[in-house]
Specification:
Belongs to the UPF0260 family. The protein has about 140 residues and is α+β, with helices and mostly antiparallel strands. It contains five helices and five strands; from the N terminus they run ααββββαααβ. It has a three-stranded mixed β-sheet with strand order 1-2-5, with no helix packed on it. Strands 3-4 form a two-stranded antiparallel sheet.
Length: about 140
């Protein structure tokens, strides 16, 4: 039995298809973040990009996401170490830190169902910027507090 590609192929050597398939589709990277100017601590909010479908946790126009006017960033193999704002469960981050994919990952289970069941997605947990008055009221993590 052969090992799966994510266990044998370094991130920088993966094909574009392999790289894209690592994304578990949780939608966490599509949430707006706030950064403390003094400590560089990242605070995750439940405020979603307007292109995020809150039921599927997918971009409403993925092929054109960089032309949408939103601040969508392309995650690339050569700059993965710069994306320290990615959630700790993000497959790109997990693999770049030498860890293994979690058991609920769609590459392991074959669907997003286990990820949603493990409560690892933003499904039906977001608000959109138009509904936000005070961003700090939407912080989901409170590090060091």
């Amino acid at each position: 039995m052969t090992s799966p590609f994510w266990e044998t192929t370094p991130l920088e050597q993966m094909s574009e298809q392999q790289w894209e398939s690592l994304c578990d589709g949780c939608g966490k990277c599509c949430l707006h973040k706030l950064m403390d100017e003094d400590t560089d601590e990242v605070y995750y909010t439940n405020v979603a990009c307007s292109w995020l479908n809150s039921k599927t946790c997918s971009c409403k126009d993925y092929p054109n996401r960089f032309q949408s006017g939103e601040e969508c960033l392309k995650l690339t193999r050569d700059k993965i170490h710069e994306f320290n704002w990615l959630p700790e469960t993000c497959s790109y981050r997990v693999l770049s830190e030498g860890q293994t994919l979690p058991e609920w990952h769609p590459l392991i289970t074959g669907s997003k169902s286990a990820m949603h069941a493990a409560d690892e997605s933003v499904r039906n947990k977001v608000v959109y910027e138009i509904d936000v008055l005070d961003w700090e009221d939407h912080i989901q993590n409170l590090p060091n507090r």
